[in-house]
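Supplementary Text 2. Reproducibility record for the structural model of the 71-residue chain.

All settings were left at their defaults, and a single model was retained for analysis rather than an ensemble. We include the record here because the model underlies the residue-level annotations in Supplementary Table 4.
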Amino acid sequence: MVVSQERLRYQKQARAILQSEESYALAVRRMTEPESVFGQRKNNQGFRRFLLLSTEKVTLEVGCFPLPTIY
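Retained model, structure tokens:
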């Protein structure tokens, strides 16, 4: 079996980056953000892409998307 030394070097580098303090802080922050819930809800209602261009129109389109109210 032949092992690529370059692949092992990249693998070691990626592992070091993923185990750094900065990566850990990003992962913790990502766990608390509601992006996944928003994405799942969009997918369930068939919302695949924005139909309008420009920031103002996209903001309007997102505003029309019904989100549940949490009491």
